[in-house]
Here is the input.
Amino acid sequence: MNMSIEKILNPESIAVIGASRNPNKVGSAILKNIRLTFRGKIFVVNPFAEEIQGIKSYKSITNIKDRIDVAVISIPAEKVLKALKDCERKKVSAAIIISAGFKEIGKAGEKRESELKAFLKNSKIKVIGPNCLGVINLDPLVNMTFVDPNTKIFKGTTAFISQSGALLSAIVDDASANDIGFSKIISVGNAVDIDEADLIDYLREDEKTKSIVLYLEGITNGEKFMRSLKEATKKKPVIILKGGRSNKTSSAVMSHTGSLAGDYKAYELAFEDAGAITVSNVDDLFNFMRDASKFEIKTDEVIVVTNAGGGGVITSDHINEQGLKMAQIGDKTVSDLSKILPPESNLHNPIDMLGDASPDRYKDTLNVITELNKPTIVIFSPQEMSMPLETAKVIYDIQSKKQNLPLLSVFLGGTNVEKARRFLIERGLPTYEYPNEAVDIISGLYFYYSHRYPSYDRYKKEKAKVTAFQGKKNTFGMNAKVVFDRVGIKTTAGVVINKESELNKATEKIGYPCVLKISSNDVAHKNKIGGVITNIKDYSELEKAFKNLSQIIKDARLNGAKLELYEDAINGKRNPVEILLGGHRDPVFGPMIAIGIGGVHANEIDEVEFVLPQISDQKINELSGSKVGKLIISAGGNQVFDEIVGYAIKLGKFMVANKNIKDIDLNPVIIAGNTAIAADFKIFVE
Amino acid sequence: MNMSIEKILNPESIAVIGASRNPNKVGSAILKNIRLTFRGKIFVVNPFAEEIQGIKSYKSITNIKDRIDVAVISIPAEKVLKALKDCERKKVSAAIIISAGFKEIGKAGEKRESELKAFLKNSKIKVIGPNCLGVINLDPLVNMTFVDPNTKIFKGTTAFISQSGALLSAIVDDASANDIGFSKIISVGNAVDIDEADLIDYLREDEKTKSIVLYLEGITNGEKFMRSLKEATKKKPVIILKGGRSNKTSSAVMSHTGSLAGDYKAYELAFEDAGAITVSNVDDLFNFMRDASKFEIKTDEVIVVTNAGGGGVITSDHINEQGLKMAQIGDKTVSDLSKILPPESNLHNPIDMLGDASPDRYKDTLNVITELNKPTIVIFSPQEMSMPLETAKVIYDIQSKKQNLPLLSVFLGGTNVEKARRFLIERGLPTYEYPNEAVDIISGLYFYYSHRYPSYDRYKKEKAKVTAFQGKKNTFGMNAKVVFDRVGIKTTAGVVINKESELNKATEKIGYPCVLKISSNDVAHKNKIGGVITNIKDYSELEKAFKNLSQIIKDARLNGAKLELYEDAINGKRNPVEILLGGHRDPVFGPMIAIGIGGVHANEIDEVEFVLPQISDQKINELSGSKVGKLIISAGGNQVFDEIVGYAIKLGKFMVANKNIKDIDLNPVIIAGNTAIAADFKIFVE
Here is the structure.
């Protein structure tokens, strides 16, 4: 366990450096929040005051005799470092730096932040912040933030980490209005010392935390973050809202793969690979905050029980649209239901108990259905004679008898069902206003429980030699081909042609049909200058091609350009299937591998799947169901699909081993019979 | 104006047939609702009672002396027809049949419903229902439904039509809890007489209705519905939630096009073409119900003004994800803002006024920004010193000064901002809990205002001759080719080969390379049996191909099969781009035309756009930006794209003229240089 974080969250004594007498100042709200919540010793540091909020004020923390566990610092940015040094002298173990005025304000702040980092490097003191809202622990209670002291915050089992202080206070306020409780609330600010990964590691082991929710805008150390995230999801659900998803790609990207990958793609991949649940709206967060730890979803087959046909219809729509399935109801269950329900009922999923369904009918039906132990959404729509509160009580009774039952209720309507909803919410039962909310929870948790312990059998099976790449410049053509030969990816046979007289001998090795290409480090897209002649069928065609391309080199003054002769893997095939394989190094998360529809129109078709170098068996399975997966299997069968997965793994290992490589394009990789052969090769380092 | 609907919504006298003394019965709730709301004359018909709820009860409606405008019928299904006949005799102009027990309960009910329809055909009486919840008019007030009489319903400007009674009552209850009012609320039930289209026509002209919201599960008469919808959207926004969107396709579909079209696709297309806004969640409906008529959105460039960086970030994400744009802030505006805002502010979109933004800072900033008259989302996040209610008042003042300002506010948080939210909601201002809600409204209304008056210039330009198709069976190969030649779609040259001796002469017409195919009405997918030999380069190859295919015909006993010789439009091209053009007749909405990525892998790639026969210029523009559009333009330029659009229009006219045709597949349509040539032809009638 990270003892510094433990100390910050469970201090016995706190000093507020920069406590303020002015009730409109941050330093006043912090002290007030601590006073209202904390049972340990509180000290105040403010050289200009005698006492604040009835507590004696010290000129400096060093003047305090007692031991101080945590200093909460809220003074002008330029004074923070000095205060930290005082803390160190006083042997304070940790500090929360609330003060803003660091990297977030530009140049001057960046300098200040570097100095802070430099100091912390050689200091024992551990820091949260700066530029943060502070930290709240709900058990034992201590609120070291400047959130409005009137905000009610409930104890719960969700830890919330936020990179935005403003969103944090809004979300906490909103959550409390919706009966959602927390175990810990942490605003990380600029995270100069303790970062998101450290906190995730701590919360993973925290027994009072059953799920972890994060609002992130960016990550500095992708590798460290991923490691922590992967470990955490083995123990409890982690839910992430990522701000800044816009898919801007730098226009300078030369590779196909790089231009197909967006900025957010790497985050998405990393979160998915680590088994974290991602949401895209603030409101999506709330239901997960409340219910993510309440039950496990181990199947994607969902049952819907309703008293309103329309409610069943729209719920089925959401289930299908989320990639879940409507469960088949077995004969035995249908027969059991037929004894309970009126003859006009629908005994198949969605099970319609009809508009006059009484609480007893709900009870009998749910008793049968919950035996199946599948995620079940029970819908109540207020109708003539229906009794919402009594129905809610029936649902509560059923939930109470069985622990962790994946039974989610939706009470449609407003005033008429308000009491029923409150009854269930106050008892901690998963109940929702709209069917899509229940479906989203099931879908998110099904993803979590089916990706929690990924297997890597296929990945491990792939015996890739690690190949070094020493190139310092972008490398195309034959120079790149030989690299991929070493990596273990099948490539078209090829030779460099230095002069016309070498052509004849070259064709002995290559055969017909063949392809003649210009190879120049100045030309990333040869086709655009007419630098590729394919399907050359005999020597006379080859001679003509040679003259043609030589002329292009001359006209375009391509210094150092060469001609290269390759076998033509398409070999006259009418409908060749061309795949794109590529690699792209994300600045935060490192390499990602692309498998897409290739060929000269790859960018227009824009159909590409990305995987991480260490690809899980689950991901391979998902890939096989994607458009590109289906296309590969349709053209080359499972054998070629497996071969291409192998190529992807090899490419991944190659990029992991060679950090100088930025992007790789193998396009096209041609499916020729029962194998796949890369026919064009590019390595980008700059 | 439809006078029957006018009469139903504005009756002077109502008779309740089947009013009940039992307070738990539907007939009791209806009478109670009418009594609580209606100021005209109320009569009660129940042969078993003397009086109900203090009103004298008649044995039959015919016993009543006064004129009756509307009869509300809630008696057992088997007695409904008799009651209707009484109504006719009494010269009642309209009836609302609440009673269930018709088509929705199966066979017995279907018969009852047919009898009802037969009677209505020759009757002057107009009917809403059966199997419905009833009708509410808010001005003048009359509630002729059995919704819980305790449900508060507010007067507003939205008309709500629902095919599900249960959802209607839930949504009305929920809407009222959220201060959303209605002009009319209509449950259509089985719609044996007055249907959704009639109601839309009426509501289009209704001055008290500013927007129309529909919950639909299915439509019987697609053509009539579309006509009404198109007219209505010219006058006011129409918002549709369609239940039953699951993409089940009948497994019997033989054509590519048919299998690529799902059941929901036709609805989606029809709604989009008619300019209706579609939503997929019940909760999405509410914001549109409340705000769809409050402002017009005429640009997709959105401005975000915020006091919290995080709030700006997530709002920008939603804007980009909805296909909208972040507006560029011009130099003049930036300069104006720089005079108002502190130096650390972000003067570019999203405009960040910083966490300590006072109401005055909001006011000054919004005064500058609203001058630009672009949709603007103003975000408030509760922070130290921020004043939510005062900020809300500033927003209100600004809205009051300018009518229909597209200014949407989001107050993040819960208890802290509740009063501010209430302040704005009570004054009818568009304010939301989460940024995505504001973005969805802008996106929906931008769609509406940019599709409201579609232009059909390209469609009109296409002079397609209407070609008759008399075929009574599925028609493939040459028999189909000659049809498309007449339609005006370029096809590959071809001849039927009856015997080997005809080959030589045929090649004089066709030339090399050529393609030899089996043509048989028993074989829809020739490739699967090896029935196509392409790229035949000389006579000896042709002879071999002939023998080969003749043998297949013999082996597979394909009676009546013929061989057909075609030019090979691919002509050795290495990366031919193959498009799929097709037609599919939806049982409700009629023909839809498919333009997709074609070739033998069309189903795996599954990239297809559907258009209606009468394609708008807007849709053509959207098509050009789709993946298939980009592919066509990349391969053949705008000229070929325009040619293919022309083919689509011709195909559409052809299908409209020939109602016996179910599906058409032209796959592949090969892009050869600056033209597109269909190379395979199938017409399905069965």
In short: The mean pLDDT of chain B is 93. Chain B touches chain A through 88 residues (CB under 8 Å). The radius of gyration of chain B is 31 Å.
